[in-house]
Amino acid sequence: MTTPTRQEIIDAHEALAVLIRFASRRAEGHDEMDQILAWDTAIGAIFPPLPRPTMAEVEWDDDKHYLAEAEHVTLGKVVMIHPATDARIRCLCKWYGPHWVYNLTPAHLTPTGKRYTLTEAQE
């Protein structure tokens, strides 16, 4: 069996949700509804978890994404700074090559939920 792609996993979850809604509308009584919900649970249990959204699926919001950590598919953890263009996000990355700042493809960046703040150093 092949490993499903990110999009195949998303499509499978969406298809199951549509099928369950369709079947639920036609259920006659509590017994049928209980059976539909049991099928939903059984089928959903074998699916891989839904992947987290990438920055290609999320609109940039300075309050959420400025200095937020993201996982890049090859570079690992990076810190997002701001959109460089419509197709790239400027990021800090200390692990790759001689440079620190890169313009990366949003589809390759998955936010981790962590954010950093700048603070003034007290001497």
Structural notes for this entry:
With about 120 residues, the protein is α+β, with helices and mostly antiparallel strands. The chain folds into 2 domains: about 5-45; about 60-115. The chain is built from 3 helices and 5 strands. A 5-stranded antiparallel β-sheet has the order 4-3-2-1-5. β2 (about 75-85) and β3 (about 90) form a beta hairpin. The protein is elongated and about 70 Å long.
Spell out the blueprint of helices and strands:
Blueprint: H1 6-26, H2 30-46, H3 62-65, E1 68-72, E2 76-85, E3 88-92, E4 101-104, E5 109-115
Antiparallel strand pairs: 1-2, 1-5, 2-3, 3-4
Tags for this entry?
123 residues, alpha+beta, 5-stranded antiparallel beta sheet, 3 helices
Count of discrete alpha- or pi-helical segments spanning 4 or more residues: 3
Separation, N- and C-terminal Cα atoms: 60 Å
- In quaternary terms, these chains amount to single chain
Quickly count the domains: 2
Secondary structural class: alpha+beta
The residue-averaged pLDDT reads: 89
> Strand-residue fraction?
25-35%
Instruction: Tell me the Rg in angstroms.
Output: 21 Å
User: Ranges with pLDDT <50 over ≥5 residues?
Assistant: none
Briefly, what is this?
This protein folds into 2 domains: 6-46; 62-115.
